[in-house]
């Protein structure tokens, strides 16, 4: 369970040249294998559950991992989540850039498009397993409905956490 520790309130908004909304994917969007992406967030730097979030925004280069290979990696192992078409897998180029505590909900950005929301990471460990992201294009219509049909999305933590928790609950029901 997540506990909100406080709110961040800006006294002056960021200028549009610094922070801009991110493009939503088309409902038919399917990122190609090996597409270069970036994931970013303020998660902890180690796997200690009491670790505090980083004070610096961290980011890592990722690439889209072949969906069929990802399914074979995860679905054939006992105790691992079943990969569904509502998920997209991404791996690190260096195998040491793995998500950590509190990174769930971090955005996966590919070609300037919000492609995924981190659902399952490697617990800060060097791993050859790809990370699992909620595939955002499955929820584009919902997001546009909530945001007034906007073509871009300024994500709030609550909607990102809601999408991630929904994906994780759905995956556990089907496992």
Task: Summarize the structure in words.
Helix content is 19%, strand content 23%. It is α+β, with helices and mostly antiparallel strands and 175 residues long. The protein has a single domain (28-44, 54-174), classed as Trypsin-like serine proteases (Thrombin, subunit H, Beta Barrel). Strand 5 (107-110) and strand 6 (113-120) form a beta hairpin. The longest helix is centred in the C-terminal third of the chain and has 18 residues, at 157-174.
Keywords:
six-stranded antiparallel β-barrel, globular, 175 residues
Short structural summary:
The protein is globular, with a radius of gyration of 16 Å. The relative contact order is 0.21. 19% of the residues lie in helices and 23% in strands.
Proper CATH architecture = Beta Barrel
CATH superfamily: Trypsin-like serine proteases
Tally of strands: 8
Overall tally of structural domains: 1
Helix content: 10-25%
Rg calc: 16 Å
Give the overall form: globular
Average the pLDDT over all residues and give the rounded result.
Answer: 76
Find the CATH topology. Thrombin, subunit H
Contiguous runs where pLDDT drops below 50 for at least 5 residues: 1-6
Annotation field: number of helices: 3
Structural class: alpha+beta
| CATH top-level class | Mainly Beta
User: Termini, distance in Å?
Assistant: 21 Å
